[in-house]
């Protein structure tokens, strides 16, 4: 496993730190690498790649809003013998109690994000000579997500 991670992450340094952990679905471990710490989730079941790809897409979508701090997803890796590993930025977790109010505000902003994007797009439609700053994020008009996500191993198809 460590040799595979070194190759996939193109790092010479791969040193586990902290304690490994396991939930009811996957195991996790933090590693120091040449480019900083990462967190690796591992699951050896055949559905692991689909589950981790959905999680990666979800984290990318959350990260792109800039509204709430989530680990930056890096890579899904197939494991020899089956299953997959999901590599993401390591975030040092601490007690939430002092940040609960801030997190609540961020969640509220996140729930309004699509509505604000759509309002901004509508305002741009009525503006002559919009600047060429590059593509703006687009709001969505229908329910769903651009990839299959999972609740555990159960696919939640809402594409």
Automatic annotation (TrEMBL):
GO terms for biological process: fructosamine metabolic process. GO terms for cellular component: cytoplasm. It catalyses: N(6)-D-ribulosyl-L-lysyl-[protein] + ATP = N(6)-(3-O-phospho-D-ribulosyl)-L-lysyl-[protein] + ADP + H(+). One of its GO terms (molecular function) is ATP binding. It comes from the Eukaryota. It holds the Pfam family Fructosamin_kin. SUPFAM superfamilies: Protein kinase-like (PK-like). Gene3D superfamilies: Phosphorylase Kinase, domain 1. Its EC number is 2.7.1.172. It is an enzyme of class 2 (transferase). Transmembrane segments: none annotated. Keywords: ATP-binding, Kinase, Nucleotide-binding, Transferase. PANTHER family: FRUCTOSAMINE 3 KINASE-RELATED PROTEIN (PTHR12149), FRUCTOSAMINE-3-KINASE (PTHR12149:SF9). Belongs to the fructosamine kinase family. This is protein-ribulosamine 3-kinase. The gene is Fn3k.
